[in-house]
Structures are given as structure tokens and as C-alpha cells.
Amino acid sequence: MPVIFRRYGPRWLIYALFIAISSVVLFPIAINFFTAFKTSADLLDSSPLSLPKQWNFDNLQNAFHNGNMLTGFKNTAILVAVSVVFNTVLGAMTAYVLNRFDFRLKALIMGMFVVAMVVPFYTTEVSRFQIIKELGLYDSLGAPLLIYAGTDLLQIFIYLQFIEKISSQLDESAMIDGASYIKIFTRIVFPLLLPASVTLGIIKAVDIMNDMYIPYLYMPSRDLQTLSTSLMTFVGQRASDYELLSAAILIVLLPTTLMYLFMQRYVFTGITAGAVKE
């Protein structure tokens, strides 16, 4: 709770503010949940926040079948597993090089990462699309895998905080014993980065599962759809099947919700551990 509220804000005002913020977040979820179990007639005759007159669980089954969710789960699992592995290794290696080595273009490389975070990626989408197409990766899992595998500034920042707390004397001792830089990284440094790797892996996995833009643009085929792009099945130009769409949203929310519930402590632990210096 912010200090300013503890000192100057009445307790009822604090509670009212928290209730208002929670309502903004929970109301859309509640509307979607109730809509997912309503029939078409019930949806037209009732208010969005009213309970279904008759709970229709067939919407979940129809949404799973019509939305080709099984294919979406498979493709999403492949994207998450492969991308997180490559993304974690590349991010850790990049941070290790930037922390342990001094070279002429070090500041320029860090600046390029900052620029890449500041510049909206939509402005470079035409160039990226052309590169993906020239590589022959369009309409294949290789396109999003190549994009997701790239590291970013958040990864480098968190990894740098962890690597700074790993003494360079460990590297020197290993080099005296004849270890190469690759062995030092794989045998000594990378295992000590496990808390950061778990944190960043969870954040990246949730980001990939929630992303609709890249899979929809680079994998238009139905057999390559992901959980997020499968929602487009229930949306048309003239009409939408809202009850099935809401049911499909519940199915899509399930993996990310479970991941957050079981992994949230690792996320907070990894971020706070890297932010505190001894």
C-alpha cells in the first residue's frame, strides 16, 4: 500500500479505490463467464451480468470442437517450448558477454537493444515480413519461432543483475583449470541463473500464449492456428457467435491462469532477487 495513502487517505477511501479497480478488472471476466454458459435465446433476453437461466455446458464442447482447439493447444505448446528454450539461452549468453567482456561496440549493442524497445515494432513490420518471406518461413511454425526466440532488453537487464552478483573469480579459477568460456558459461554461470531463467521463461511463455498478432499474420493456415488465433473462428464480418466465443475464451484462459497460479511466486522471487544487490 503506498505511503501517501497510509498517511493521508481515509481507510474507506482506500477500500473504495481498490474495489473500483477490482471491478474494472473482474466485470469483463464475469460477463464472459456468464455468457459462456448461456443459450442464444437466454443471451438476448437477459442482462450481461445475470446468471444463466439454464447452464449450457455444450458451449464448451462446441467451442473446443469448432475452434479446432486441440490443434491450437499443440501448436501453442510447440511455440512456447522451443521459443522459451532458445530465448533463455540467447538472453543469458548475451548478458554474460555484455557483463564479462569489454569490446569496442559494447555500448553500441546496448544502445541497439534500447532503440529496439523504444521504436514501435509496427513501423518495422513490412521489413520483417519481407525477411520472413524471403527465408521461406511464411505460413510455417518457423516464422513465429524465429521472432519469439530473439532476446529483449528486459531479459538482458534481469540477467545482468544476476550475473553481477556472480564473482568473476569463479571464471578466473575455471580458466586456470583449463576451462573454455563455453564451459564456464554452461557449467558455472548458467546454472546459477536458474531463478532468473524461470522468471523470464514464465513471462515469455505467457506472452506467447496471449499473442494473436504474430501467429495470425505469419501462420494463416487453419492447421497452424494457435489458441489465441482460434478465437477468430467465432468472429465474422456481419455476425459473431458470442456464447461460443466466450466459451472459447474460457478455454484459452485456462493454461495462462493455471501457469500464473502455480508459478507466480517464482516470478516475484526472480525479479526481487535480481533487483537487490548485496
From TrEMBL:
- What topology in the membrane does the UniProt record assign? Multi-pass membrane protein
Q: One short Pfam family name for this protein? A: BPD_transp_1
Do you know which InterPro entries this protein is assigned to?
MetI-like (IPR000515), MetI-like_sf (IPR035906)
- Which residue ranges does UniProt annotate as crossing the membrane? 12-37, 77-98, 105-123, 143-163, 184-203, 244-263
- Name any GO cellular component annotation: plasma membrane
Primary localization class, coarse: membrane
| One Gene Ontology biological process | transmembrane transport
Q: Where in the cell is it found?
A: Cell membrane
- Entry keyword Transmembrane: yes
Q: Which residues form the ABC transmembrane type-1 domain?
A: 73-263
UniProt keyword terms in alphabetical order:
Cell membrane, Membrane, Sugar transport, Transmembrane, Transmembrane helix, Transport
State the family named in the UniProt similarity comment for this chain.
Answer: Belongs to the binding-protein-dependent transport system permease family.
Please report the name of this protein according to its UniProt entry.
Multiple sugar transport system permease protein
Please give the organism.
Cohnella phaseoli
Q: What is the lineage of its organism?
A: Bacteria, Bacillati, Bacillota, Bacilli, Bacillales
